């Protein structure tokens, strides 16, 4: 039987994603307390990039479900000396029951999934961050009820997290308005996919237009991991007009919430007044990574 990978939200039926969310909510409520559904199971976590939340929430989640983890950075594996991802996938599959990988290119993730005989979970690539979006949908719904039909506004870089928001908008049926500088728009093929799927995803360069009447305002760092090395366009100048401040929040619905996947940079993509203010749900959002990923682990490991 083919392993149950968790690679990107666009590959799932909505029902499967809803099922994972329901499991996550159940774990949060403590429904599995005392049972150890993943007893004896081992998760390998491979990191090509740094992480606080993903690393700790997967480790704690796995242990709370009775399993255990092995954490590797590519520097201390033979991947760092040129062993292929395919061979690494084949070998790790002989030792562990699932693999979580945070890497640069989607190609590495695909190769891992192609050659692993155990489930592979996408812990972020340059192109997407699906575990984050599962936590974000869970968090939105805890605070504001069903997300279908609601309006979410993204103001900032059209990055990996924005891409997963596009996937989520299509799968969960909400309207997504992206405000990004022309130089930092999400990939064209992604937006085309959303259109073909009948998704309500719109694009603007004017943050005030995007947030008008929105139920939620979201942003992310101006520099994603790896962007530092690209030495490209001056992102700070391009993105300053997209900063989420109180003026921008005032244009959203009066009860609109603020979300950010973290890590945050106060004074850059968001002001301290917003992220530390009453409308911010970022700590719930970070907490929900733990609960929803327990749902993902339980789904992947059957
Ligand atoms: N949001 C998120 O994935 O955080 P980490 O980079 O700390 O894992
Ligand atoms: N866009 C950010 C998300 C970090 C969780 C990055 O890729 O660095």
Pick out its properties.
alpha/beta, binds phosphoric acid mono(formamide)ester, 302 residues, 5-stranded parallel β-sheet, 14% strand, 4-stranded parallel β-sheet
Overview of this structure, please?
Helices cover 43% and strands 14% of the residues. It contains 13 helices and 9 strands. Strand 1 (42-47), helix 2 (53-64) and strand 2 form a beta-alpha-beta unit. Helix 2 (53-64) crosses helix 13 (282-300) and helix 5 (130-144) crosses helix 13. It starts with 13 loop residues before the first helix and ends with a helix. The relative contact order is 0.16. The mean pLDDT is 97. The site of phosphoric acid mono(formamide)ester (CP) has 8 residues, from helix 2.
Summarize this structure briefly.
This protein is of the alpha/beta class.
Shape: globular
Structural class by sheet pairing and helices? alpha/beta
Small molecules in complex: phosphoric acid mono(formamide)ester, norvaline
Radius of gyration: 19 Å
For the record, give the distance between the C-alpha atoms at the N and C termini, rounded to a whole number: 12 Å
Q: Count the strands?
A: 9
Largest sheet: 5 strands, parallel
Average pLDDT over all residues: 97
Poorly predicted runs of 5 or more residues: none
Helix content: 40-55%
Strand order of the largest sheet: 7-6-5-8-9
Helix count, DSSP H or I runs of 4 or more residues: 13
What order do the helices and strands follow?
HEHEHEHEHEHEHEHEHHHEHH
List the helices and strands and how they pair.
Blueprint: H1 14-29, E1 42-47, H2 53-64, E2 68-73, H3 85-95, E3 98-102, H4 106-115, E4 120-122, H5 130-144, E5 151-155, H6 160-172, E6 175-179, H7 188-196, E7 201-204, H8 207-211, E8 216-219, H9 227-230, H10 235-239, H11 246-251, E9 257-260, H12 272-275, H13 282-300
Parallel strand pairs: 1-2, 1-3, 3-4, 5-6, 5-8, 6-7, 8-9
Bound molecules: phosphoric acid mono(formamide)ester and norvaline.
